[in-house]
Amino acid sequence: MPKPQITIKDIARELEVSVSTVSRALNDSPDLSKATKQRVQDYAKLHHYNPNFLALSIKKRESTVIGVIVPQVTHHFFASVVEGILEVADREGFSVLLFRSHEEYDKEVRSVQRLLSSRVCGVLTSVAKETTRYDHFQELVDNDIPVIFFDRICVDIQSNRVVIDDYAGALSATEYLIKTGCKRISFFCSPMHLEISKNRRGGYVDALRKHGLPVDNDLIKICDNYDDAIPVATEMLQSENRPDAFFAVNDETALGILHASKLLHLKIPDEVSICGFTDGFAAIASDPQLTTVGQNGFDVGVSAMELLVERIRSNGEPMLKNRIIRTKLVVRETTR
Amino acid sequence: MPKPQITIKDIARELEVSVSTVSRALNDSPDLSKATKQRVQDYAKLHHYNPNFLALSIKKRESTVIGVIVPQVTHHFFASVVEGILEVADREGFSVLLFRSHEEYDKEVRSVQRLLSSRVCGVLTSVAKETTRYDHFQELVDNDIPVIFFDRICVDIQSNRVVIDDYAGALSATEYLIKTGCKRISFFCSPMHLEISKNRRGGYVDALRKHGLPVDNDLIKICDNYDDAIPVATEMLQSENRPDAFFAVNDETALGILHASKLLHLKIPDEVSICGFTDGFAAIASDPQLTTVGQNGFDVGVSAMELLVERIRSNGEPMLKNRIIRTKLVVRETTR
DNA sequence: GTGAAAGCGCTAACAG
DNA sequence: CTGTTAGCGCTTTCAC
User: Fold this and answer.
1) Residues in chain B closer than 8 A to A100 (CB atoms)
2) Domain, as residue range, for A202
3) Which residues in A lie closer than 8 A to residue B280 (C-beta atoms)?
4) How far from chain centre, in Å, is Cα A253?
5) Is B293 helix (H, G, I), strand (E, B) or coil?
6) How far is CA B125 from CA B32, B34, B60, B150, B276, in A?
7) Does A335 fall in a domain?
8) Staple B150 to which of A130, A298, B162, B273, CB 3.0 to 4.6 Å?
9) Do B229 and B257 touch, CB atoms closer than 8 A?
10) Nearest CA to CA, how far is A43 from chain B (Å)?
């Protein structure tokens, strides 16, 4: 195990003062002679004294560590969110304990457990796809640990939320497809128990209705990744009454559809329009470049963390403030 | 601040036993009657007792938290590494404090400071591009905190390393380009003070030499991202003696080159071959799909964390064990 | 101005 | 088998 770092006690012994004096000096307490204060501070600097955060938290009953649980780190959106969180955390003096649920309920529960044991002062999370019970999150709330959900929120828990405007994003994307002449628009989305699916579907459906197009359930598929999208899209595109447009829940899925379309030698965007959701680097790398709903993960992370900091500083007042991060339709080459 | 969670003391009071009895029961100590043990454990479970890790670490002078500093989270390779680390951490019972240096020296130093104060039991890191002094890392070592460098290692510090086989990866990629008939192969890489640049350059140069091709410094550019690659590649491709192949330090750069080539209506791969390094999702999304040197970030993370765990468990014996993660050339469509 | 002492949650001798 | 006690690093009354 690491050898113990220098402590306030060591300094006290060496300088022949009491520990309280050292403590006061390091905290820049006003009632202390300039001389001793300086002496202590110099010694501390010279010997690389680092305050022991563990002792601090345990004593003051408050920590500066927050917990973050994301489904997956290798996912452009979540990675951006984490970046945003880290950015604010650094600025505001917090550290981040990171966990990933890997979309599994068990891992999520275990992570929450560790967060509780680590006595974090707040938690930011996006729930796993598998999760349908929320007792673990409730336990955080019961212990007065502020929880902020982002993106994949949990409606059953009373807490703050940061969501991207899924409904509006889906609505405007679908409307754009309609306006450019598409009539049979398919929608590829994640499992329906996720709020994000419901909202995006809502935007999609409302756009169709608004423009007098029928809502055909055969055009709505539960499919949200590259590999699965290829066969599903291929089958649809080979049917007699094939869709002339696809709106997918993320870029990976959209690119899977694009791939399938190319294999069938369909002209993009003339015969088939495709729109994704995320706007990661892959959207630029593809050819034709992908039209997609830009989802600013960084801003989501920043907002979520700012909300959390505000709540921690306000002494945990359970303010009912949520944030909606606007999306932006980025029109590129897979739509007319 | 969060209300204090239930403690061993609370349990002791409630059950009218001493704290040591509770402690022993919760640690499943052998010398304790089954009855009391059960009684305590039941009560603890019922009331959601969570051991206070802070108190534990401070008492036992060892923590189960490790620190990770990466330059950037939104970078497929680093995100994968973090995933790998989290995977092993979860399995082995560690938590991860994550920091990002954002390629800045100052942020890196600050992160190390916090890690020191957080009394982590080990650190995994890949150094920032800006960093040229290593005192902060040395301080970790001086405090007997095991440090494992991955990818962007630091040769000045005596510690363990996990690197991907940059030299071999670059060598085989360049050889492949040569074998498929390319004669003027350009190399786009990161700043030369990074080990990774030196090694990849070494592989590139040696491949040229081995096959009797001249090493032309005009063909070697310091350029490692999508946006910068476009103008630089464009200029080269318009020169009279243009390259017939490009080998880039990462996929983003390679895709920038690809983009520039397409704008000039050059046939890929007939007139220009392109090879990247990373193999992220964008390599599949692009059209033509990118030939690239697959760099398994997940394995890097797993190996680094396993090395760290081994070292922590072996009581910090400064074993001199390094790991080299093999790369794999993934031939797709941007090479002949 | 400075020190002594208590206590945060927990473990680990040392007693009994 | 169980309790008492000291102490991990630190802050914070309360004295002097």
Assistant:
1) 83, 86
2) 166-295
3) 281
4) 19
5) strand
6) 44, 46, 26, 6, 24
7) no
8) B162
9) yes
10) 17
How many degrees, rounded to 5, is the angle at CA A320 between CA A316 and CA A325?
110
pTM above 0.90, yes or no: yes
Positions of strand C less than 7 angstroms from a protein CB: 1-5, 7-13
User: D16 C1' – A41 CA distance, angstroms?
Assistant: 25
A329 strand-pairing partners: A293
State how many domains chain A has.
3
What would the pLDDT profile of A228-264 be if each residue is shown by its tens digit?
999 999 999 999 999 999 999 999 999 999 999 999 9
Nucleic strand D contacts from chain B, 88-127, CB < 7 Å: none
> Which of B287, B302, B311, B332 is most worth mutating to test chain A (most A CB atoms within 10 A of its CB)?
B287
Q: Are residues A201 and A304 in the same domain?
A: no
* A contacts of B308 (beta carbons < 8 Å): none
Q: Is residue B336 part of a domain?
A: no
- Residue A196 token pair: 């994000």
| CATH for A140 | 3.40.50.2300
Whether residues A62 and B145 touch (CB distance < 8 A) is answered with: no
Compute CA B61 distance to the chain's CA centroid, rounded to the nearest angstrom.
28
Check whether residue A285 and residue A188 sit in a common domain.
Answer: yes
- Angle among Cα B77, B78, B83 to the nearest 5 degrees reads 100
Whether B217 maps to a domain, the answer reads yes
Task: Let me know whether A144 and A197 are in one domain.
Answer: no
Q: Note whether A52 contacts B117, CB cutoff 8 Å.
A: yes
Instruction: Looking at the structure, tell me whether residues A36 and A68 fall in a common domain.
Output: no
Contact B96 A100 (CB under 8 A): no
Query: Can you give the CATH number for the domain in which B37 is found?
Result: 1.10.260.40
Cis previous bond, B51, omega within 30: no
Based on the fold, state whether residues A160 and A301 are members of the same structural domain. Answer: yes
Give a yes or no: residue B97 inside a domain. yes
pLDDT tens, residue by residue, A130-162: 999 999 999 999 999 999 999 999 988 989 999
Same domain, B253 and B108: no
Instruction: Tell me the HSE value of B176 on the side-chain side, using a 13 A CA sphere.
Output: 23
Query: Do A153 and A271 belong together in one domain?
Result: no
Report pLDDT digits (tens) over B16-44. Answer: 999 999 999 999 988 888 999 999 999 99
Contact A282 B287 (CB under 8 A): no
Q: Are residues B192 and B236 in the same domain?
A: yes
Nearest chain A residue to B65 by CA distance is: A97
